[in-house]
UniProtKB/TrEMBL annotation:
Full protein name: TadE-like domain-containing protein
Matching Pfam families: TadE
Lineage: Bacteria, Bacillati, Actinomycetota, Actinomycetes, Micromonosporales
Species assigned in the record: Pilimelia terevasa
Residues spanning the membrane: 24-49
Keyword line: Membrane, Transmembrane, Transmembrane helix
InterPro entries xref list: TadE-like_dom
Domain TadE-like positions: 24-65
């Protein structure tokens, strides 16, 4: 009798052990981890695109301010230069760019507002950058 009891207990333990095997655990782990990894990758690419677009828009504003502050520069020199720079450097990364310029007798300010291409929609698609500088003025004559 005890031998038969031991045999029954062994069979019972084997059945329980089969229920606790790790078969299929890898697929479940992948199903949980893969979306998180993909979101992190896409988020990293989005951050890089946003930072690059911000840098390009700021560089365009600086180019426009530098062109607009020159001595005897035409009134539209700043916006034209900024728009050309943005068109060449940014391509389709920056869209809906609006360039404006404010002039005073001593300073020139160029402001660019634009949108950037996004993989994940959100407020980071809007960019607004401003650059300003003193106007070149002739202050003295030749002796």
């Amino acid at each position: 009798m005890p031998a038969r009891l031991v045999s029954v207990l062994r069979r019972s333990l084997r059945r329980r052990w089969r229920l606790h095997e790790d078969r299929g655990a890898t697929a479940i782990e992948l199903a949980i981890v893969a979306p998180v990894v993909m979101i992190l990758i896409v988020g990293g690419v989005q951050a890089a695109l946003s930072m690059f677009a911000n840098t390009l828009v700021l560089a365009a504003a600086q180019q426009g301010a530098d062109a607009g502050r020159l001595y005897d520069a035409p009134a539209d020199a700043g916006p034209d230069t900024a728009s050309r720079f943005l068109g060449r450097a940014a391509g389709r990364l920056v869209t809906d760019a609006q360039v404006s310029q404010e002039q005073t007798p001593t300073t020139v300010t160029v402001t660019i507002t634009a949108r950037t291409v996004t993989l994940i929609p959100g407020p980071w698609s809007r960019i607004a950058k401003t650059a300003s500088g003193p106007r070149e003025i002739v202050t003295g004559g030749a002796p």
